[in-house]
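USER: If only I could read backbone structure tokens as easily as an amino acid sequence. It would mean a lot if you studied the pair and described how this chain folds. Here is the record:
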Amino acid sequence: MVNCNDTIQLPGINVTERTASTFKQAKQPVTWRAAITGVMISAAEYLACLQAHSRDRHALQGLDDYMLKDVGLTRSDIEQELSKPFL
């Protein structure tokens, strides 16, 4: 099998065996700080997603009946969505 770095030569790009081998190194073990930071970021993203869904549901409330019919919803569908307990 031919290495594409050997066959494709681009001006200004010099890939050596040393730089190519650095990508093959093993990943560092995850520290507890990184794990906690990841969990906190995931929780913040989840809350932002819930808030966006809530904002979208409340935006549907402002649509008139013609626009709701256009997207395939009824006024009762909107009331059911607004009664959901989360955010």
Notes: Helices lie at 4-7, 17-22, 32-61, 65-70, 75-82. The chain has five helices and no strands. Residues 32-61 form the longest helix (30 residues). The chain has a mean pLDDT of 78.
